[in-house]
What we know:
The complex is a heterodimer.
Chain A: E1 4-7, E2 10-13, E3 19-25, E4 33-38, E5 45-49, E6 53-54, E7 62-67, E8 70-75, E9 84-90, E10 102-106
Chain B: E1 3-7, E2 10-12, E3 18-25, E4 34-39, E5 45-51, E6 58-59, E7 68-73, E8 78-83, E9 92-99, E10 105-108, E11 112-116
Parallel strand pairs in B: 2-11
Antiparallel strand pairs in B: 1-3, 3-8, 4-5, 4-9, 5-6, 7-8, 9-10, 9-11
Amino acid sequence: DIQMTQSPASLSASLEEIVTITCQASQNIGNWLAWYQQKPGKSPQLLIYGTTSLADGVPSRFSGSRSGTQYSLKISRLQVEDIGIYYCQQASSTPYTFGAGTKLELK
Amino acid sequence: EVQLVESGGGLVQPGRSLKLSCAASGFTFSNYYMAWVRQAPKKGLEWVATISTSGSRTYYPDSVKGRFTISRDNAKSSLYLQMNSLKSEDTATYYCARYSGYWYFDFWGPGTMVTVSS
């Protein structure tokens, strides 16, 4: 199985700050990576797919990138509504595996 | 508007069975692969099952293979998960999810909680 190692596990940041979350794949997954946001008490929502493509309705302050087998989610100016837990997911091969999550809080 | 609504969760004893349902609306259900994804309390996400548009192909991780069965009724726009030989580690919120056309989950239901305990 492909392991997705996500870091940090938790992150505290200020409004308008730049936030970066990373995911390291245990093997090559190409661009088959997605990011999800889960707000407290809610189901996950797709943010980014194919490493860099924004899902419908997702603000442009969110962006995704890749360097080798390391993938990053960047929030350019943190807003209150961005608070939650973020998960990466590889879609290269079954079982489709998720990272352990990054809990993003306001400082 | 795409809507997915799960039902059928509850408290069940270890070794027993439970069947979850997911009612879909707002899109042509028969055109999409569908999946179940679960989340144990305060834990991360785990893919549980996938079914093709016709229902002829199904996929499972080793953790549930042989115990869980995913199925669908396209005439009723409904997805199901039959869970047998339940274990305490199956305790989780179970989400019905739609595949985007690639292997990403673009819509999720609110989830239904399954608790396996004696």
